[in-house]
Amino acid sequence: MSPVSGAFSAEARLIHAGTCRVLGQPVTPPLVPASIFVASGEPRPARDYGRAGNPGWEALEEALGGLEDAEAVAFASGQAASMALMLALTRGRDRIVLPSDGYYGTRVLADRLRPHGAEPVPTDQQDLTAVERELNAAPSVLWAETPTNPLLRVADLSRLGELATAARAPMIVDNTVATGLLQRPLDFGATASLCSLTKSLSGHSDVILGAVVSRDPELLAELRAWRTSGGGIPGPFEAWLALRGLKTLPLRLARQCESAGLIAAHLSGHPRVRAVHYPGLAPSAAVRRQMTGGFGPLLSFEVNPGDSEAAADRVVASSRLILPATSFGGVESTWERRARWAGETAPDGLIRLSVGVEPVADLIGDIDGALNCLQTQPSTEVPSCA
Ligand SMILES: *Cc1c(COP(=O)(O)O)cnc(C)c1O
């Protein structure tokens, strides 16, 4: 534990996670690429083999847990974290009630695990009656995601939490888009929140990693056991990079949320855009209740003419600053036409934009320039604006 205690803010604790005050020692945790640690006889030391632990995980888990006043277990990726959660929670439960419009990788994973456990039940989580019906049909896990990737739909965590409690179903919230800095699902009754650290938490588009955050000691022990025996462990270098990135999370997200709000408002009035999805545009009561730290770096929009794959592809290819790439939360802005991925349920013409930390005027200029490629088009054809 770092010497910075609960007397200080969550942000101060995040920045100081893993720091050291011992004279002559490094201030931040060193990178320890060890597969084995000195060990012999009894008592067994805390670390003997690298699959069971690495000193670099500790500071990272302290930082992530601190964001939600809980404990964290880090994994090799967001998907490795999801898999451990699904394996841990579906024992004795028949189904995973998950969002029909959430991250497609979650649906693919739940489908793959079907022969080994529970049935995935895709459900519209805006429809609370449908969620309640599915939860009561058989012992279930409620797997929520909010805001959803890529449509940025917001599920009402307090209502979902009540339904889960009534049905005795553990509720998991995929908190990757908001992060624990903007939204704390455990405060709304979630048993665990899940984060891909690959996105905003690490923030520099250079690491794949994930984590689960929980206050349930039994679940935490179970997740660590799955990590050790399944082997989905964070690499020491990845953990070190993620901790380094996490220290600037509050600064990065403040800038990204502010710019994303301005860009969403700008796109809402744009003649070449027919729909914009961003939780901060006319925030609902649920958004105001649960996204207390900001509305996030991610938005999506649909270009005119609607459902036009080719038009959206042209726009994405026409930017000169925003990078055509997947993922989100990095300091560099990126965008992509989301339906280019097999299994994605987003509309064909939907562009997902991850707002980075570049000055917003540069981003708006680049977006307008890219959308201009649609301007001179003859009515039936998509223009070439190479
Ligand atoms: C990226 C992502 C994941 C998976 O994380 P990886 O680190 O890529 O394995 C899970 N959920 C959401 C919402 C994501 O965006």
Walk me through what this model shows.
This protein is an alpha/beta fold and 386 residues long. The protein folds into 2 domains: 10-246, 3-Layer(aba) Sandwich (Aspartate Aminotransferase, domain 2); 249-375, Aspartate Aminotransferase, domain 1 (Alpha-Beta Complex), CATH 3.90.1150.10. It is built from 13 helices and 12 strands. Strands 1-7-6-5-4-2-3 form a 7-stranded mixed sheet, with helices on both faces. Helix 6 links the parallel strand 4 (140-145) and strand 5. The site of pyridoxal-5'-phosphate (PLP) has 15 residues, from helix 3.
Please provide a brief summary of the model:
The protein has 386 residues and is of the alpha/beta class. Helices cover 36% and strands 15% of the residues.
Give the topology, please:
Elements: H1 10-16, H2 55-67, E1 71-75, H3 78-89, E2 95-99, H4 104-113, E3 119-123, H5 128-137, E4 140-145, H6 157-166, E5 171-174, H7 179-182, E6 192-196, E7 210-214, H8 217-230, H9 236-246, H10 249-268, E8 273-277, H11 285-290, E9 298-303, H12 309-318, E10 323-324, E11 334-337, E12 350-354, H13 360-372
Parallel strand pairs: 2-3, 2-4, 4-5, 5-6, 10-11
Antiparallel strand pairs: 1-7, 6-7, 8-9, 9-12, 11-12
Helix pairs in contact: 1-2, 2-9, 3-4, 3-8, 5-6, 12-13
Residues 77-79, 103, 105, 145, 149, 174, 176-177, 196, 198-199, 208, 210 line the site of pyridoxal-5'-phosphate.
Annotation, overall tally of beta strands: 12
Overall mean pLDDT score? 93
Can you summarize the main beta sheet? 7 strands, mixed
According to CATH, the homologous superfamily of the largest domain is: Type I PLP-dependent aspartate aminotransferase-like (Major domain)
CATH architecture identity of the largest domain = 3-Layer(aba) Sandwich
Rg calc: 22 Å
How many helical elements? 13
Q: Based on Cα principal axes, name the global outline.
A: globular
β-strand percent reads 5-15%
